[in-house]
Write a structure and sequence with these properties.
Largest sheet: none
Distance between the termini: 8 Å
Order of helices and strands: HHH
Oligomer: single chain
Radius of gyration: 16 Å
Helix content: over 70%
Structural class: mainly alpha
Number of helices: 3
Length: 86
């Protein structure tokens, strides 16, 4: 549990419904902004023949990690709000 609190510190401070909704919105916005930025960087780097493919693959992995982090964060926020986790 301590490791989860170190990796997801933002998820363990939910006290009421408004904090829950705000934290979920922040995670969703982080996913959207991260995806847009990585997509833009991938689009720009796509003009480079060989390096663009490698950068695109790396950006895809980074995008997946960001999305998984945000989804796990949302699940943890909900579980903390429901008092399943403390």
């Amino acid at each position: 549990m301590d490791m989860l609190k170190k990796i997801f510190p933002y998820s363990f401070s939910v006290k009421d419904v408004s904090a829950l909704v705000i934290k979920i919105i922040v995670y969703v916005v982080a996913m959207v902004v991260g995806g847009l930025l990585l997509g833009l960087i991938g689009l720009i780097s796509g003009w480079i023949p060989v390096l663009g493919a490698v950068i695109g693959w790396i950006l895809g992995v980074i995008g997946t990690v960001i999305e998984v982090y945000c989804v796990i964060g949302i699940v943890l926020v909900i579980l903390v709000f429901l008092k399943v986790l403390k």
